[in-house]
Description:
Helices cover 36% and strands 26% of the residues. The protein is of the alpha/beta class. It has two domains: 16-235, Rossmann fold (3-Layer(aba) Sandwich); 243-322, ACT domain (Alpha-Beta Plaits). Strand 12 and strand 13 (281-286) form a beta hairpin. Helix 10 crosses helix 13.
Amino acid sequence: xxxxxxxxxxxxxxxxxxxxxxxxxxxxxxxxxxxxxxxxxxxxxxxxxxxxxxxxxxxxxxxxxxxxxxxxxxxxxxxxxxxxxxxxxxxxxxxxxxxxxxxxxxxxxxxxxxxxxxxxxxxxxxxxxxxxxxxxxxxxxxxxxxxxxxxxxxxxxxxxxxxxxxxxxxxxxxxxxxxxxxxxxxxxxxxxxxxxxxxxxxxxxxxxxxxxxxxxxxxxxxxxxxxxxxxxxxxxxxxxxxxxxxxxxxxxxxxxxxxxxxxxxxxxxxxxxxxxxxxxxxxxxxxxxxxxxxxxxxxxxxxxxxxxxxxxxxxxxxxxxxxx
Length: 324
């Protein structure tokens, strides 16, 4: 696999051949036939992974599962792996060589390689020279203008994140690779970033995700566990499949009492699944029959409090971070 990165290329006007490729790629933006990469604690192995054009895909899983590594291999930024597949209808090997293709991609990673002595104004000008587009609306939404006279190395974590996101979004790419895009952003700019991403309806996004706000942007979720994509489905369908539609938690005086009572409930209500027991609080997920279980607990002498409601995206994230 070529190690030449997809990012950092000059913009060229699309040729007729490139336009034809766009038409052919209308069905799939990303296709991984096979991908293998040795990691320190596991072998990342992905096969037959296909992302339809326009999907917004959240990559979730525990730390070290391989989410960032998966993006880096597709971008040609990681050596030592093997990849067969295509992006926007073209083989990945061609992406590593053809500037007119790579200009259709936007990338924001946790580690940027920009020279620290550059002023933000110079970085913005460099972006414009690469892609031939100003992206003034993106610059305004991310508050880039007040940073123009600062050197990149002087920026705070949140400020550098805003500049990195500007570089990824301003040219309105067809395919976006994002690694925890909301990390470090003040609430104002996190909201602006979400609005920008929500407005990019024609773009396909692959996004490493660690917060419910990021997950809310996704149409689909890929759960990476044990070095593979364990599940890939529409976001809410996966929540129902992995977690269930309802969440029941109750407090007891000890873990032992809570665990015994949870086991009894799970036996009586087949849809109920015990998620965790910690400091006397048990959490179960399941279907409609958890409503009956909640009513039983209200009158139980060993139960101090009961909470019942719909499961959330936080529950899905915690499930995927906790389990393999």
